[in-house]
Amino acid sequence: MPGDALHDRLRAAGLRVTAPRVAVLRVLSEADDHPRVDQVIDRVRAAGGRAGTVSVQAVYDVCEALHRRGLANRILVGGGPARYESRVGDNHHHLVCLGCGAIADVDCAVGAAPCLTPSDLHGFRLERSDVTHWGTCRACLNTTTPPTTGRTLP
Question: Closest Cα to residue 99, out of 144, 137, 46?
Fold first, then answer.
C-alpha cells in the first residue's frame, strides 16, 4: 500500500502520522499471516528507513493504538500471544491449525454480519461475532508426523 494511503488512513482514524505508525500499518497491510508483535518488530526493523530502530514498546503501543482506532484487528487464539491484521470491518473469522498454529481468514459462511445469531440474546443487541475454527492445515496434513492436538499455539 502506498505511503500516502497509509498516511490518509492514520489521519482519518485521528492518529498523527509517525514513522513507527506508518511502518507497522504497512507491515500489517502486507502480511497475510496474522503476525505476532515480535514478528511485526522484526519486519519493521528489516524494512529499515526512519522506523528501522523502533523500540519493542513502541511497536506494542502502535499495534494497540491501531486496534483501538479500528485500523487493526487483534486476534487472540488458544491463550497464545496477540496477533494483528489490517483486515477490519467485515466480520470475517479465522481458521487455526492445531498442528503449527497457522491462521487463515475465512469469510462469514452465510448472511450479513454478524453471521451467527445466538439462540438467546439475553437482551443484547448483537454487533459482531468472533468465530475461530480449529483444524489441521494442508501442510500439517501432508507431513509424516501427525499434528499434536491441543498444543499451545506459537
Answer: 137
Q: What letter represents residue 118's amino acid?
A: P
Specify whether the CB–CB gap between 128 and 91 falls below 8 A.
yes
Give domain status of residue 67, yes or no: yes
1 vs 127, higher pLDDT: 127
CATH number at residue 126: 3.30.1490
Instruction: Give the pLDDT confidence score for residue 110 in this predicted structure.
Output: 67
- Helices 19-30 and 37-47 pack at an angle, to 10 degrees, of 110
Number of domains the chain contains? 2
Band (126; pLDDT cuts 50, 70, 90) = confident
Residue-number span of the structural domain to which 97 is assigned: 89-154
Q: What is the CA radius of gyration of the chain?
A: 17
pTM of the complete model beyond 0.85: no
**Domain assignment present for 82:** no
